[in-house]
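Design request, tokens follow.
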């Protein structure tokens, strides 16, 4: 019996293929035969049948909702970027307006803590404490820093992740036990002069795979503003 049906099946397949190719070549076919749209039925997920027009309307609605979601995400990203730009602008202007190192560090810390809501932050400056202007930044010698956080200083770029306990302790002091993950970037104006570190209680917040564009940008600003305050 199956052998008797095969020629008919093949003929039907060829006919379907011809219809398919014809409709592809004439996408306006149903414009001339709108009555056919109401007679065509398609299987529906609910198990019933719907006309082609209803199916097309349903698909268009789904696509419309998808586009609306995409647009909403784009608008939210735009708003987030606008807020980030305003915060960054305030930080840069406050650093440019600072009259001395103490004011510059105060402005930096205020921006990180208030504007960016960063939980932990630390600025280490390398040099002679007796020759460095007073500020909230911690001043350490190059030799000491190299012995304690040499790996971080030698990277010459921003890094993210979980630090060794002694590295975290050196950067954040008595708050180190609350810091789960860290993003840190060395500061240099031709010569290494410090390191900026920010931290979060969540060990997965700053990950090695995350982007560091923002932190690197802050470092570039500090590289150009802090060295002018390097003498008392």
């Amino acid at each position: 019996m199956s052998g008797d049906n095969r020629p008919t099946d093949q003929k039907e397949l060829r006919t379907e293929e011809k219809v398919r190719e014809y409709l592809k070549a004439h996408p306006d076919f149903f414009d001339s035969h709108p009555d056919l749209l109401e007679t065509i039925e398609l299987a529906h997920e609910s198990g019933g049948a719907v006309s082609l027009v209803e199916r097309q309307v349903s698909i268009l609605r789904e696509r419309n909702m998808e586009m609306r979601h995409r647009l909403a995400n784009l608008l939210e990203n735009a708003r987030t970027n606008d807020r980030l730009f305003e915060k960054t602008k305030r930080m840069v202007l406050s650093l440019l307006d600072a009259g001395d190192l103490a004011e510059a560090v105060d402005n930096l810390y205020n921006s990180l803590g208030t504007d960016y809501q960063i939980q932990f932050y630390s600025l280490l400056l390398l040099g002679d404490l007796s020759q460095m202007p007073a500020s909230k930044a911690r001043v350490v010698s190059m030799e000491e820093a190299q012995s304690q956080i040499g790996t971080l200083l030698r990277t010459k770029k921003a890094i993210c992740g979980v630090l060794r306990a002694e590295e975290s302790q050196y950067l954040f002091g008595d708050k180190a036990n609350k810091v789960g993950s860290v993003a840190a970037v060395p500061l240099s104006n031709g010569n290494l002069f410090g390191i900026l570190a920010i931290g979060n209680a969540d060990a997965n917040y700053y990950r090695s795979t995350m982007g560091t564009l923002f932190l690197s940008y802050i470092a570039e600003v500090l590289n150009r503003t802090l060295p002018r305050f390097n003498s008392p």
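Comment from the thread starter after seeing the answer: thanks! Residues 1-33 form one domain.
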